[in-house]
Amino acid sequence: MAQSSRANRKVLVLPGDGIGPEIMREVMRLFEFFDRRNIARFDVGEGLVGGAAYEASGVPLTDDTLAEAMASDAVLFGSVGGPKWEALPFELRPERGLLRLRKEMDLFANLRPAVVFDALADASALKRDLVAGLDLMIVRELTGGIYFGEPRGVETMPDGTRRGINTEIYTEAEIERVLRAGFDLAVKRQRRLCEVAMKRQRRLCEVDKANVMESGGLWREVAERVHADYPQVELSFMYADNCAMQLVRNPKQFDVIVTSNLFGDILSDCAAMLTGSLGMLPSASLGAADAAGRRKALYEPVHGSAPDIAGKNLANPLACVLSFAMMLRYSFDLADEASLVEDAVRRALAAGVRTADILQPNTARVSTRVMGDTILRELEKVA
Ligand code: IPM
Ligand code: MG
After folding, report:
1. Ligand 1 atom nearest 268 alpha carbon
2. Does residue 43 contact residue 9 with C-beta atoms inside 8 Å?
3. Distance separating alpha carbons of residues 105 and 91, to the nearest angstrom
4. What's the half-sphere exposure (Cβ side, CA atoms, 13 Å) at 358?
5. Hey, CA dihedral for 221, 225, 226, 231, is it positive or negative?
6. 146 C-beta closer than 6 A to ligand 1
7. Ligand 2 centroid to 277 CA: how many Å?
8. Is any atom of ligand 1 closer than 6 Å to the C-beta of 95?
């Protein structure tokens, strides 16, 4: 294979805290598998982030690690945070390590797919027919809005009482680039075969609170304008509260959802639950393409660090495994190889292998490590 000799795919692995290190350990075996089978080589480095970085160096992300991340083609991120660090000042909390990476790498487009694997359709809190075959993508703006807007803070007023301030602020350029990422994705997204057969049109739904927020009105205007470049995609608008409701009422009406940082945070948790397990969901955070078409990128499972089960070999490594697959697809143009990994996951689930979080009647409960073994075994079969 032409690609196998290219070892210039630089990946920085940041396992982080809680279950991060043990799920990442299973993903490291995938790098090793691709290498051993001569499918693709990667130059893999490892670093500290979150509480782990704080313990080692007093900050949740060092400048050196940030520089390494900036120099990598992709960052593979585990999870950060835990009770041990909750009392720290805001700037030293583990989560700040992640936010700093997102901001400094300018990873403005956060892709959060909600895909229901057939074998898990019954694990959803919703009825099977509402979610079976679900395949939607939330594109969340990740470097702007109320998460970063100024002014912010808590201030004391003349009468001695205090007020808290955060600001939702978006420039047209920020809105436009994330919408373009969403439209591009809507065009490119591989749909399930049955939908292709039904010739279903690509759809993009822009979600905001334009009924109460001026910035939301601006999102709509920009969306209309950008839409002119994507006539093949059907554009619709929805208020965020209605979207939360529609996601649990009839999630299959959605294809690609594009929304602001805060609404995307909330709606993606909601969409995650539709799939039956947060432990299954990967994500990609992408920057702008440079002249060579390369984007800075960070891949991470949507679930958190789950300190209650950390170190017990109980965690579900599949979200991290699927994040690895997204990395293959979006950073290295290895779509076939990504499909191999996703197939291996599908086959492991179909064989009834389950970690505790997705356990169902008549399935076998396995550890993190055994799930990793199973994925590797299935990969051997399909690769
Ligand atoms: C997420 C998380 C983060 C966020 C936290 C950990 C800062 O909830 O990635 O959805 O709010 O963006
Ligand atoms: Mg969140």
Report:
1. 10
2. yes
3. 18
4. 33
5. positive
6. no
7. 14
8. yes
> What is the rounded CA–CA span in Å between residue 242 and residue 244?
5
Determine contact, residues 141/181, Cβ cutoff 8 Å: no
Measured by CA distance, the residue closest to atom 7 of ligand 1 is: 95
pLDDT at 5 over 50: no
Interval 265-285: pLDDT, tens: 999 989 988 987 778 899 999
* Percentage of the chain modeled with pLDDT above 90: 87
* Two structure tokens written together for 174: 């920020």
Q: Report how far apart, in Å, the C-alpha atoms of 62 and of each of 14, 47, 67, 70, 334 are.
A: 12, 10, 9, 12, 31
Give the three-class secondary structure for 42: coil
Q: Which two tokens stand for residue 250?
A: 């009839």
* H or E stretch at 80: none
Mean pLDDT calculated for residue range 200-220: 95
Average pLDDT over residues 252-259: 97
Calculated CA dihedral for residues 278, 123, 109, 61, nearest 10 degrees: 10
How is residue 257 written in tokens? 């959802």
Catalytic-labelled residue, pool 241, 308, 333, 336 = 241
Question: Measured from the CA of 102, which atom of ligand 1 is nearest?
Answer: 12
277-302 mean pLDDT: 91
Is 209 one of the annotated active-site residues of the chain?
yes
Instruction: Give residues with Cβ within 8 angstroms of 45, minimum separation 6.
Output: 10, 11, 12, 13, 68, 72
Among the listed residues 209, 255, 299, 357, the single catalytic one is: 209
**Which pLDDT value is given to residue 1?**
40
